[in-house]
Amino acid sequence: PRLELLRTLAVQFGITVPGRLVVRGEHTREAGAAGFAHLMGMKYRPDAVFCANDAVAIGAMDKAEEQGIGIPGDVALIGHDDASFASLVRPRLTTVRYPAVDVGKAAARLLIERLNGRVARKTVHVKAEFVSRGTV
After folding, report:
1. CA trace torsion 77, 28, 38, 8 (10° rounding)
2. CATH architecture of residue range(s) 2-97
């Protein structure tokens, strides 16, 4: 779902995201470190990284520190979900926040519709909030 979000945002802003810049993995701190290392090992490394969640972003921050890469000086970094720990790390993590209650209600409505056989597939939009902190 978050990869679809990235693609939707890219289309909305007229940006093409090459497949080689999309790193798939678990949504863990360890996967974030591994994915960041992969991206920074590329011949033409990106100057910004958008992570699937805040845990992945913090793993990326760990690897950046280990490799002497400045966040945000060398690479901007954005997490996703505004976990409680996002504002505790240094620099404080820039992230995207979604209204959890609205997402939960929409998911429950879709599940009920699906259980009743009324909806095969449906897109639901919720308003996200960009939380600017110290990593961009």
Report:
1. -60
2. 3-Layer(aba) Sandwich (3.40)
